[in-house]
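To whoever is covering the structure queue this week,

Two jobs came back overnight. Logging them here so there's a record in the thread.

Job A:
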Amino acid sequence: MSGESAPAFKTIPHHAPVADAERAALLANPDFGRVFTDHMVTIRYNTDAGWHDATVEARRPITMDPAAAVLHYAQEIFEGMKAYSLEGGGAVLFRPDANARRFANSAERLAMPALPEDMFIQSVSQLVSIDRAWIPTTPGGSLYLRPFMIAGEAFLGVKPASDYLYMVIASPVGSYFKSGPKPISVWVSRSYTRAAPGGTGAAKCGGNYAASLPAQAEAMRQGCDQVVFLDAIERRWVEELGGMNVFFVFDDGSLVTPPLSGTILPGITRDSIITLARASGLDVREEPYSIEQWRADAESGRLREAFACGTAAVIAPIGEVKDGAGSFSMAQGRENDSVAQSLRRSLTDLQRGAAADAYGWVHRVF
């Protein structure tokens, strides 16, 4: 039903929103994903009525039947995106159309109805507009948006559900890593893989992240910030981190990132970096890169930098890599003149309206 018209949104403002002084205190130093805004968006779907009951309302708990399909068969997808405040006033979304397309692709992979692109963009815009006071104006602050959809039909049987609930919630955030953009350490998992060919690796669904948690816990036990997953077949090709894509920067200035083969999430930050890097004259190749080559190139000095990227962290340089065979580090240049930091500045300047948008990526909300 992707061609159906978007239902009109009904707005029910919160009768007791958070007081200005309390909100200001919360925004001064928000922990990532712990503080939430006053409102949320809900849209319902069933196979007979299609998308309906689009509502902006007070954020509240949702009621669910214990036999709801999402609780038993994990029909669930989500997105992660941000709204940014502009220096002269107003707010923008960054590439919401790309999030909308990926959300629809994830829905198709999980046998869920595709939310039309205009409905997706309108839903996040409505929430940003009504909760505009929650957008942090502190350096590096933004409003993290979490659109998601769950199967709500109550039944016990393995089949696609007929009823779904789409929602958007928002959380004011600062830096994803407490240390800011300083280099992170990563652990190469030899015990776990994130996705296999034919699986759900390219979909943004909760099951992928749940399956990554033991490996992430393993990484933390080793004193690392993140886990690196290898391919499921040969266990040697670098794929991605627990929640981020990865890039490698060589001494000739070229970049390599693992190709989208169906097992890697097609990151919007990843795609933006490829575009910006190529526009600046850098050679970017999407090709397989093995963990053995990563170590050899780092030790020889051929590999100058490695960095992870994603909506939450933007760009995080990788300083140290650990696995059962020991550890190695990148011969990164000074933080302020690295390729990673240059790309981060270019990207964040676009996201915050400080640079001209040559790509049509910035969507103004108000």
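Job B:
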Amino acid sequence: MNSVAYKHVVSYEWERAQHLRQLRLGQLQREDVCDADFLLRAAARHHGVTMDRACPVCGQPLRLTLWVYGSSLGRRAGSARSEEEIAGMVAEGIEFTVHEVEVCPACHWNHLLTAATAYAAC
């Protein structure tokens, strides 16, 4: 099977750091950043993997969830997928965007970490 490669990678780590800074300075309230909805929390629980990084708000383990987007995906667009499912989709010869989102199931912190175009690396 082909492996997954990524191009056009955009990092949102700087924005994450800014939100955390604003939270610590009182410029943002906890409910402003701990706002993961039910669907995002459920996807993190069922499709996400535990990260080596603790939640910056409450210290509990974070879950990394992969979301796929693209018109070529049809009904699969806008859904959480495992790395294996993503590999299967790129094996079909299509390119699409993958968003990496960290989610804290405990306090509902969430943040987009990266967005990148997935494609098959031969």
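Note for Job B: Helices lie at 13-24, 30-33, 38-47, 83-91.

Please reply-all if you pick these up so we don't duplicate work.
Q.
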